[in-house]
């Protein structure tokens, strides 16, 4: 009985996993661009700006875990820590830097 | 005292006053062009993209008859003894005869990967994708370099090391200007790396459909380089004929009693 229950737990739908990942990516993309604009409007420079990126990224990821995953991320992701916190880090950093630089130059 | 002053003078960044029209006529056009090129690229990829994969009916039948014995062997425990026997006999006979082979008596040794239409199609698609990526990027880079060269466009919000000076201040003839003041080509680089999230926001939903595509590619036809369908069928026929039926209901009373004892 236990064995079969374990067996059914391991069944994964690639479609659902892909959907969850794209949803997470959408949230990260949107928030990193918006926070980048915020950093540019505040005219933050060097370390403060990157600090804002790290703080906002961690805050959004935690919010995603608490609010959307209902504190149960392993139900929706195969490898929760890697998928939520590390997979799109570089990409979001690039997006953040772009919108940060853009608004910084426009307003500065 | 003097040395301190000198250091302080070196540390303060020279403030340049930039023409505000630079933002309107250089920064915005480059950004808009890059976003539009991304949109065009996306839609050309949709238009040039892979068509719906189709396979001739005999091939599909062949594949299904290859997966049938696997299903019977794996899930046969759920079947009645008699119905398992019927399936076993029928499938073993059909498979060993090769009744549903797509191409009977095909000379498999002469099969070349490059002549297989599916594979050459995939290679062509890959080439198209690469071309659609590199051609617009090269064109924009040339355009930015040609039209907007020779002046400082913007100030970066973060300091960079002196190594970036040559690349990011190309065309600005100053020996000791701070690296934070950069020319237009650096805005091109920054937005080239940073536009992916923007594209995702612009057409995020169309990407959802793309996830399933790679899996469907191998539905029709066996993988190149793998064993031929004929060999596979023979193997499964042998497996089936020696398979012993074992019902899931055997000894179930004892197991239930054990569970609840």
Automatic annotation (TrEMBL), chain A:
Source species: Eremothecium cymbalariae (strain CBS 270.75 / DBVPG 7215 / KCTC 17166 / NRRL Y-17582) (Yeast)
The topology of this chain with respect to the membrane is: Multi-pass membrane protein
**Protein's cellular compartments:** Endoplasmic reticulum membrane
Q: What is this protein called?
A: ER membrane protein complex subunit 6
Pfam families, per the entry: EMC6 (PF07019)
Question: Quick one: a GO biological-process term for this protein?
Answer: autophagosome assembly
An annotated GO cellular component of this protein is: EMC complex
User: Which residue spans traverse the membrane?
Assistant: 24-44, 50-69, 89-107
| Keywords in alphabetical order | Endoplasmic reticulum, Membrane, Transmembrane, Transmembrane helix
Molecular function via GO:
membrane insertase activity
Its family?
A: Belongs to the EMC6 family.
Name the domain of life this protein comes from.
Eukaryota
Automatic annotation (TrEMBL), chain B:
The membrane topology noted for this protein in its Swiss-Prot or TrEMBL record is:
Multi-pass membrane protein
Task: Indicate the transmembrane segments per the record.
Answer: 24-44, 140-158
Q: Which domain of life is it from?
A: Eukaryota
Keyword field contains Transmembrane: yes
Give the UniProt family note: Belongs to the EMC3 family.
- Pfam families the record matches: EMC3_TMCO1
Compartments it resides in: Endoplasmic reticulum membrane; Membrane
Q: Which GO terms describe its molecular function?
A: membrane insertase activity; protein-folding chaperone binding
InterPro entries in the cross-refs: EMC3, EMC3/TMCO1
Keywords, A to Z, come to: Membrane, Transmembrane, Transmembrane helix
Any single GO BP term: protein folding in endoplasmic reticulum
Q: What does this protein do?
A: The EMC seems to be required for efficient folding of proteins in the endoplasmic reticulum (ER).
* GO cellular-component term (any): EMC complex
User: Whose protein is this, by species?
Assistant: Eremothecium cymbalariae (strain CBS 270.75 / DBVPG 7215 / KCTC 17166 / NRRL Y-17582) (Yeast)
Q: What is this protein called?
A: ER membrane protein complex subunit 3
């Amino acid at each position: 009985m236990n064995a079969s229950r374990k067996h059914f737990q391991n069944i994964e739908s690639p479609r659902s996993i892909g959907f969850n990942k794209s949803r997470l990516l959408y949230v990260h993309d949107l928030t990193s661009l918006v926070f980048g604009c915020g950093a540019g409007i505040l005219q933050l420079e060097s370390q403060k700006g990157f600090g804002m990126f790290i703080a906002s990224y961690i805050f959004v990821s935690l919010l995603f875990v608490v609010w959307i995953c209902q504190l149960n991320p392993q139900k929706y992701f195969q490898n929760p820590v890697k998928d939520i916190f590390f997979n799109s880090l570089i990409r979001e950093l690039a997006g953040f830097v772009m919108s940060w630089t853009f608004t910084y130059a426009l307003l500065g | 005292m003097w040395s301190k002053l000198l250091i302080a003078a070196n540390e303060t960044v020279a403030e340049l006053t930039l023409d505000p029209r630079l933002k309107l006529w250089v920064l915005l056009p480059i950004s808009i062009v890059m976003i539009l090129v991304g949109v065009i690229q996306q839609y050309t990829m949709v238009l040039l993209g892979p068509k719906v994969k189709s396979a001739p009916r005999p091939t599909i039948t062949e594949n299904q008859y290859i997966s049938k014995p696997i299903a019977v062997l794996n899930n046969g425990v759920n079947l009645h003894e008699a119905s398992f026997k019927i399936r076993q006999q029928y499938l073993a006979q059909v498979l060993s005869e090769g009744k549903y082979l797509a191409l009977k008596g095909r000379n498999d040794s002469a099969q070349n990967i490059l002549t297989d239409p599916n594979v050459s199609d995939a290679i062509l698609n890959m080439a198209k994708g690469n071309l659609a990526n590199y051609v617009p990027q090269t064109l924009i880079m040339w355009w930015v370099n040609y039209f907007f060269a020779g002046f400082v466009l913007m100030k970066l919000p973060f300091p960079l090391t002196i190594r970036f000076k040559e690349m990011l201040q190309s065309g600005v003839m100053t020996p000791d200007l701070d690296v934070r003041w950069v020319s237009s080509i650096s805005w091109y680089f920054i937005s080239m790396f940073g536009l992916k999230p923007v594209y995702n926001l612009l057409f995020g939903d169309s990407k959802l459909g793309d996830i399933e595509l790679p899996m469907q590619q191998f539905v029709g036809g066996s993988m190149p380089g793998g064993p031929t369908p004929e060999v596979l069928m023979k193997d499964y026929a042998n497996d089936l004929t020696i398979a012993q039926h074992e019902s899931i209901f055997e000894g179930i009373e004892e197991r239930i009693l054990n569970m609840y004892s």
